[in-house]
Amino acid sequence: MSEPNRHLPHHGPHHPPHEGAQRPDGGRRTLLAALAAAALAPLAACGGGGDDHHHDDDDAGHEQLPLLRFVNATLEYASLDVFLPDIPDRPASKPVEIDLRNGGTTTPYDSLGAKRHRVRMKSTTFGVEGEVEGEKVFEPDTYTTALAYGGRGTSGKLVFLDENEPAAPDGRHKLRVLHASPLHQALDVYVTPPTMTDLRDEPPALAGIAYGAVTAYKALAVGLLRVHVTAAGSKTVLYRSDPFHPSGSITTLALLPRNDRLHLTELPQGRSAQQHDNVVT
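Structure tokens predicted for DUF4397 domain-containing protein (281 residues):
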């Protein structure tokens, strides 16, 4: 059974989603936010691992609180604590997540109040060089991923990925790519049938993706696939996944460093993140 969806402290009426995302493997985190949310209504159900968040008919006409999750995709910050300083009646120094490990470790979604919030992600080992920060207005009925990436100091960045894309047509899924690896310049991404390994005659699905860029969504046929990544204009494979079915009909593929190699974390809209190892030897 998946872990219940957790709730960041907030004020105002609460209409929780009815199925929570399962906690991904990896990273030891004490969920301090849950302590402050003890008075909130519990989830009505606990679904299977990676089930979509959805709104039952009983919730029709009610606004759902925004949902937010966090990713540590940084190169040098092995562990990050996460702070939301603008939550009323909560010390700004009290984290909502602790020990979020790098390499693409991702939290489940949490609900928070519909308003402008600052997000601070602070290294547990570096001092003033070890922080990234950003702010955003979180609207009702929305999903967002806050992803920290880059190196130490001013090269560290925080990006908010809005995950509110309309559904793909029948038989298709939508895929976009975030290039978050400071170890690599522009990249080409190939999405192929699962048995393909020779890219010589294959055009990239998404080409020339600059570091820090997020592509537009591309609609692809549903089915088992394989992802390959090369330097822009090259056919030498830097990253190759095992064959996999995308975890959702709408997903972001985050290309990021792990153990000094290029790796991929799949961030499906409204579903649990999945890590896909690099099988290039």
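Helices lie at 32-36.
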